[in-house]
Q: What sequence folds into this?
């Protein structure tokens, strides 16, 4: 049967149905079903979030000052971003102003996450969609070295280095125990890199694995641990004492130097390894421009990284804010998270109940009431799903919409908004990368574009880290060491009923939490998360979400090997724990 | 004794006994040997030796330990304000905890001694450790006592040992409460002594019931308030009954002898 | 050495004696109820078989345990994965997906029956037929039990698998349960924490591969080497605790001097974990060192023992905003007022009523 969606896709579910469950190398539990036509081109896509924990329900009745810790556990991959969003929501509700240093440290925490998450995503969750590990065995280490040295001054590039690595890899593969590489799609036609590029990428896979654990030490210094560093309503928990008695017990010069050193290394790794790799790999796939989905039509960004404390207006945010619809880059709409008509969540196709499911609810009035059922056309049983019925409820993810539009969020969305706003910080690197690859602007709206935007953003974030580290030091130098505002710490000092919203740009996109506080307790808490946007099922009007849209019309080399599906889905860096929470 | 079915019967019964006593020996009402300068004669009152020395000693040691534990326990959870200077120059929290633990040890050892005495002492020494659950008389007595406190009875009852209501609250709140505090207190104490300590082996089962030590803290803390409430009521009742029910209370816990003030 | 290093070769190379290897085999056999001949079968299998296969499954979780694991600095996680174990299934890292991924589970179960380690991150929900966590169209709980059947031992990663963690906090809408509620016939090593420390995680795994036996567990099933002491027992701020020097308010002078966080709600005194000694991320810091109290993240039910910023936990049974002191003070005050009122009424009635000294009245 063929259906035309309001957001411009022609769905046809008559062809062969292919199920991928679990979708791996993402966070959490996801299932995708597609229909392919005779040419093995995807003509219908159904994406499902397959887990739900009920954190919004669990938060009710609790102390709002604790909420960051609960929401942080929504996800350990984008660790900290929910916590930041949460403390912002509480501070917004209670009108708490944080010190300048707290703002800088929070930005450093958030940017550290961006850098870390993007690197781990590219190398460990995404690279194997482009890189054939087994092919690396037949590379010539000398040629690999030459290739690496032509791309970047990164010092780990001698023939001997690659030879040793290849030797270790060989031994590993010959053991017959492939570990995480077991049953991969090695040798598939869809892989296009020459053996040398594969070997170089595998080397960087392992180097990135070593390096990512260094980046997060910034979280450890300011937040005490990673994953799941600590936060505080009203500021940050780490006090600063650079010059006083007992300074060893606080953020002092040694700690600041430690952070500076990690920032420098992050900039270096991003510039010398990550970006050259993306460009190099991209150059072999530049005619594989599928997977654009909603990105060429509807993208959304809330903006983040406030330059000055307590000002969350778009002008003060380093990451852009705005919405683009119908592919019109000439007009970037402002976004108002408080407007009951802008952001709404629908559950017509989600496993939840609303009193009226034809309508959406603004998150302040949001309802989370689980209700699991399968549609009449589903195959299998309630506890053994063979295939889902997308005409009915089919996912634990709700469907958020902006003024009724399904939107894509994430690095690509942010960069498109920044690009459309003609901000040089965003426009220039994009244009340069496209020029280097010899691709038109439209190439941006693709799987590869998403992957490239993430890499550019990583570089941007690493530079911004340096900016806020300098700012932090400058503020301390000017004599301000305060990190927390405790005026409204005690619940006794709070009004009896308030509501607030906090937002961030998480690695995967626009994130916001809406809170209602009544008599010192959480009355309602609703999170609308990047992967909720991207992974959303259809809405009552039939608009498909970003994941589903991105898979449409992609040809598969071999439908029994879902490599293309993985490639495109992974380009979003899906996080299902986030999406359903 | 005939079966008593009514609370009022109990009063009548007691009056009957008293009358019978007087019938046998009318002399009992007065003695001639203790005389005031103006000729007033001492009155004869009945006295019973109730609380043996170990019980009395235990009571006051226990009371002292208990009050110490209240104060230090409260301060452990809500410490006083911080002294300034180097840590090595102070031991404020250390002393509070030390006193708490010392009082706790004394409380526990005293309780062991008291339990021993329940076996070898007089019958009143056993009252703390059981309730005569199946005795109707006990419950009727408790009811009468409750009515007395609710100002519904005109006349108080008199008992050689504890009145049934006191008996009940002592068993439930004081005896069980103290044992609960000892178990949870030593379980918490064992955490500092280490997993290999005998205390940990002896009281580790507490964490089997409440796996998170924070919960044990909460319960231990709640237990304190049960005992504080008990103490309030207990001390008030002791003073009130001393005055109102015409039998000695506080001095009984000092001398061991309970005197019934009604002239015989 | 041949390319295919067996498990036996690996552990011998790491200095494990023949004797302790044999002991491991008999323990494994015993734990699987295989008896004496079983032990020699296990020994034979491990001598001829390669690195220990590890199957890492995900239930309801946030993946921070996986994230933590890859932060390990000693050993480096790449060395763990390339040389010490064979991480054959792990949703987060594995190349395969869908049917190819599912095939690995079935293959491992068959090929390494009784020889693989099942590592579980997250936990199974039981409500809604288990469909709050779906894996391959089926309830995760079924798949978990199925993979546990043939595992040699089970590792419960994190607070989720060990205790239930955040999704099991009240009212636990999915009825998420720790894995030992559904896997009852296998040794389970609990490695709690939200998440556990990376080096503790790799420490536990490599303990097994190095010493050829499961670590000694405490009464709650945790390796006692890492979980037998409280944060507070080895906290470097402990001198300030004993001195009674506390942070009284966020960012006050005491906070800047690194004094004890007890009054800020620190759960160090009630939390068993290695943070104050091993510390986090290769020893860089740990929560307290960075100014925030411990929230007790390795403890059973720690989510329901908040608020995290008060020394005393809330007691929900008594309604919101109540803790032991608020309840106690209210109760004691009630008793106090009642006693005073009672005393007043007693006194008044004594004055009002002309007392008859020989009460009760003589019987006529
Ligand atoms: C009736 C007697 C007792 C009372 C009223 C009492 C009261 C308290 C209170 C209120 C606390 C603070 C709990 C919290 O963290 O909220 C406490 C802690 C404690 N008590 Fe007791 N307690 C009693 C008996 C004992 C006994 C017999 C011991 C055994 C030695 C003991 C050992 C402890 C320990 C070890 C702590 C924890 C100290 C710390 O965390 O630093 N207590 N007690
Ligand atoms: C400090 C003021 C106190 C006074 C004036 C006092 C007075 C008395 C008196 C008069 C009795 C005898 C009651 C009777 O014969 O029925 C008694 C018994 C008792 N008191 Fe106290 N008491 C005090 C504190 C405490 C405390 C703090 C506790 C423990 C929480 C306590 C526990 C007991 C117990 C368990 C008995 C029964 C003794 C036995 O049968 O062995 N007392 N007290
Ligand atoms: N989606 C999502 Fe997150 C991110 N980035 C959160 O907000 O990953 Ni777990
Ligand atoms: S234990 Fe904590 S960190 Fe680990 S998966 Fe569960 S919520 Fe995440
Ligand atoms: S900071 Fe916490 S763990 Fe450290 S001494 Fe103080 S209460 Fe104990
Ligand atoms: S919160 Fe967790 S990380 Fe350690 S210090 Fe406490 S156990
Ligand atoms: Mg939500």
A:
């Amino acid at each position: 049967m063929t259906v035309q969606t309001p957001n411009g896709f022609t769905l046809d579910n008559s062809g062969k149905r292919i199920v991928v469950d679990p979708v791996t190398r993402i966070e959490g539990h996801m299932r995708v079903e597609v229909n392919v036509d005779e040419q093995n081109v995807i003509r219908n896509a159904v994406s499902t979030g397959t887990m739900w924990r009920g954190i919004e329900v669990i938060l009710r009745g609790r102390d709002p000052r604790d909420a960051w810790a609960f929401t942080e556990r929504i996800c350990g991959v984008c660790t900290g971003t929910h916590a930041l969003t949460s403390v912002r929501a509480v501070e917004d509700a209670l009108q708490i102003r944080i010190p300048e240093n707290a703002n800088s440290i929070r930005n450093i925490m958030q940017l550290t996450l961006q850098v870390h998450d993007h690197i781990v995503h590219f190398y460990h969750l995404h690279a194997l969609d482009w890189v054939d590990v087994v092919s690396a065995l037949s590379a010539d280490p000398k040629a690999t070295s030459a290739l690496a040295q032509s791309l970047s001054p990164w010092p780990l590039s001698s023939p001997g280095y690659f030879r040793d690595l290849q030797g270790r890899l060989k031994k590993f593969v010959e053991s017959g125990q492939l570990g995480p590489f077991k049953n991969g799609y090695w040798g598939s036609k869809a892989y296009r890199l020459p053996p040398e590029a594969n070997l170089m990428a595998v080397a960087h896979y392992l180097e990135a694995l070593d390096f990512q654990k260094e980046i997060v030490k910034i979280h450890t210094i300011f937040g005490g641990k990673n994953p799941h560093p600590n936060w505080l309503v009203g500021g940050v928990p780490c006090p600063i004492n650079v010059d006083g008695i007992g300074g060893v017990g606080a953020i002092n010069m040694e700690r600041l130097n430690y952070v500076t050193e990690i920032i420098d290394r992050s900039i270096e790794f991003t510039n010398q390894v990550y970006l050259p790799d993306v460009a190099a790999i991209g150059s072999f796939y530049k005619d594989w421009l599928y997977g654009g989905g909603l990105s060429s039509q509807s993208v959304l960004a809330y903006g983040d990284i406030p330059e000055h404390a307590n000002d969350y207006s778009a002008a003060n945010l380093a990451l852009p804010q705005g919405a683009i619809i119908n592919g019109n880059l000439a007009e970037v709409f402002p976004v108002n998270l408080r407007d009951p008509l802008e952001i709404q969540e629908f559950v017509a196709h989600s496993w939840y109940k609303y009193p009226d499911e034809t309508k959406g609810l603004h998150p302040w009035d949001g309802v989370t009431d689980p209700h699991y059922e399968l549609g009449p056309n589903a195959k299998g049983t309630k506890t053994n799903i063979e295939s889902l019925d997308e005409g009915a409820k089919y996912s634990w993810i709700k469907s958020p919409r902006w003024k009724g539009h399904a939107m894509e969020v994430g690095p690509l969305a942010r960069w498109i908004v920044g690009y459309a706003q003609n901000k040089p910080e965003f426009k220039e690197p994009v244009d340069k990368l496209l020029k280097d690859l010899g691709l038109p602007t439209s190439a941006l709206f693709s799987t590869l574009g998403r992957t490239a935007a993430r890499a550019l953003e990583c570089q941007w974030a690493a530079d911004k880290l340096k900016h806020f580290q300098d700012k932090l030091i400058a503020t301390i130098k000017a004599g301000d060491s305060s990190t927390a505002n405790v005026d409204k710490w005690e619940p006794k000092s709070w009004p009896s009923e308030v509501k607030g919203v906090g937002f961030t740009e998480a690695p995967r996109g626009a994130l916001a939490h809406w809170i209602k506080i009544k008599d010192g307790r959480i009355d309602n808490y609703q999170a609308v998360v990047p992967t909720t946007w991207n992974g959303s099922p259809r809405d009552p009007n039939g608009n498909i979400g970003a994941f589903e849209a991105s898979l449409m019309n992609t040809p598969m080399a071999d439908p029994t090997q879902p490599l293309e599906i993985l490639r495109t889905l992974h380009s979003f860096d899906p996080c299902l724990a986030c999406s359903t929470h | 004794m005939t079966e008593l079915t009514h609370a009022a019967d109990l009063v009548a019964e007691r009056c009957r006994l008293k009358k019978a006593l007087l019938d046998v020996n009318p002399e009992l009402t007065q003695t001639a040997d203790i005389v005031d300068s103006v000729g007033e004669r001492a009155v004869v009152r009945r006295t019973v030796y109730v609380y043996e020395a170990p019980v009395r000693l235990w009571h006051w040691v226990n009371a002292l330990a208990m009050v110490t534990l209240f104060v230090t326990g409260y301060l452990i959870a809500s410490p006083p304000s911080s002294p300034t200077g180097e840590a090595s120059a102070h031991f404020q929290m250390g002393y509070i905890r030390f006193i708490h633990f010392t009082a706790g040890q004394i409380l526990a050892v005293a309780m062991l001694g008291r339990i021993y005495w329940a076996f070898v002492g007089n019958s009143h020494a056993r009252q703390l450790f059981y309730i005569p659950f199946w005795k109707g008389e006990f419950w009727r007595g408790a009811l009468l006592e409750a009515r007395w406190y609710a100002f519904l009875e005109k006349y108080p009852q008199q008992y050689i040992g504890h009145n049934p209501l006191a008996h009940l609250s002592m068993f439930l709140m004081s005896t069980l409460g103290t044992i609960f505090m000892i178990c949870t207190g030593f379980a918490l104490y064992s955490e500092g002594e280490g997993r290999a300590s005998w205390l940990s082996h002896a009281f580790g089962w507490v964490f089997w019931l409440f796996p998170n030590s924070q919960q044990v803290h909460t319960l231990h803390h709640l237990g304190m308030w049960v005992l504080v409430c008990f103490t309030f009521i207990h001390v008030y009742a002791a003073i009130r009954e001393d005055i109102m029910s015409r039998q000695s209370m506080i001095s009984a816990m000092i001398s061991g002898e309970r005197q019934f003030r009604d002239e015989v | 050495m041949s390319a295919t290093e067996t498990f036996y070769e690996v552990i011998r190379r790491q200095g494990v004696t023949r004797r302790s290897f044999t002991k491991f085999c008999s323990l494994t056999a015993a734990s699987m109820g295989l008896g004496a001949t079983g032990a020699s079968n296990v020994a034979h299998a491990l001598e001829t078989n390669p690195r220990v296969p590890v199957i890492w499954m995900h239930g309801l979780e946030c993946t921070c345990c996986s994230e933590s694991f890859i932060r390990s600095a000693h050993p480096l996680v790449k060395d763990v994965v390339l040389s010490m174990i064979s991480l054959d299934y792990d949703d987060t890292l594995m190349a395969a997906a869908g049917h190819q991924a599912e095939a690995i589970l079935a293959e491992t179960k068959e090929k390494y029956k009784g020889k693989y380690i099942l590592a579980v991150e997250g936990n199974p929900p039981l409500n809604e037929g288990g469909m709050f966590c779906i894996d391959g169209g089926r309830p995760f709980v079924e798949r978990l039990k199925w993979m546990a059947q043939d595992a040699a031992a089970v590792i419960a990663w994190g607070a989720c698998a060990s205790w239930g963690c955040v999704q099991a906090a009240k009212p636990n809408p999915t009825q998420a349960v720790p894995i030992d509620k559904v896997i009852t016939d296998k040794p389970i090593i609990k490695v709690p924490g939200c998440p556990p420390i990376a080096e503790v995680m790799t420490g536990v795994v490599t303990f097994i591969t190095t010493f050829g036996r499961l670590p000694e567990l405490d009464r709650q099933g945790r390796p006692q080497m890492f979980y037998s002491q409280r944060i507070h027992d080895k906290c470097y701020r402990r001198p300030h605790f004993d001195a009674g020097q506390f942070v009284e308010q966020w960012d006050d002078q005491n906070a800047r001097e690194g004094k004890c966080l007890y009054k800020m709600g620190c759960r160090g005194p009630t939390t068993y974990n290695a943070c104050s000694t091993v510390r986090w991320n290769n020893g860089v810091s740990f929560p307290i060192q960075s100014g925030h109290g411990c929230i007790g993240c390795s403890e059973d039910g720690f989510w329901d023992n908040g608020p995290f910023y008060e020394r005393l936990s809330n007691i929900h049974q008594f309604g919101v905003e109540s803790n032991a002191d608020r309840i106690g003070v209210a109760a004691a005050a009630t008793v106090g007022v009642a006693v005073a009122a009672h005393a007043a009424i007693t006194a008044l009635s004594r004055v009002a009523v002309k007392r008859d000294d020989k009460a009760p009245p003589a019987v006529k």
